[in-house]
Design a protein that fits this description.
This protein is α/β, with parallel strands linked by helices. The chain contains ten helices and 13 strands. The chain has one domain: Alpha-Beta Complex (Spore Coat Polysaccharide Biosynthesis Protein SpsA, Chain A). The chain is globular.
Amino acid sequence: MIKKCLFPVAGYGTRFLPATKSMPKEMLPVVNKPLVQYGVEEAIEANMTTCAMVTGRGKRIITDHFDISYELEHQISGSGKEASLGSIRSVLEKGVFTSVRQREMRGLGHAVLTGEPLIGNEPFGVLLSDDLCINDGPGVLSQMAELYAEHKCSIVAIQEVPREETHKYGVIKGERIAEGVYRVQDMVEKPDPEDAPSNFAIIGRYILTPDIFDILRATAPGANGEIQITDALQAQAREGRVLAYQFKGRRFDCGSVPGFVEATNYVYDNYYTRN
């Protein structure tokens, strides 16, 4: 039912400087595969085969990654190294890739709104590559798509975090309606621990209904002139049209150096060494 997934990949990645001075953080490899490819594979597994990239200056390497490299293919054709291209070849065969450039960095809400021409009037996924989610079963977007098929409303992925870390996340207040599913009543962006309505933090997986674009157009910029997706989702939540889903799987915060190192070690120990 949901065919498209939006990838906001225009950020500067300042927490990884100087590595990200000339290389997008989304292309940092977790073992031998860039972060953004893990996300694309998750979207395609969920049948969201049209991958819409909201890019920025200096991010052309991302769209190049999801294209054929004729010179490389020719050089390693018939050699043992050719098998290393298996995962990206599979992605290229199954996925369709589009892109638009975000000229200014004005928040996640602005990035989503920038992607509207690539999405159109249909529900869509949003995946933030910083949040690497590892599953032996169905991926997070697959789990959320199944929930969307039942409820037909916007959905945010959540996980429990230590209360002292709520200031790093958007946090929900919700009414439990099923195991791991909450109807969102309110959202607070990066609250102090004593002000947080819960310890359920929103992570980088969303399913959004297309009316979110009109809501974002009417959303006033907040701190630092940024348009926040949580402000737009709050407007939907006031009408009871947002669910929060406590997903199954393990999530790594690859937007931070410690989380990135932890993810690399985990993938190497549990997946790479099996091959």
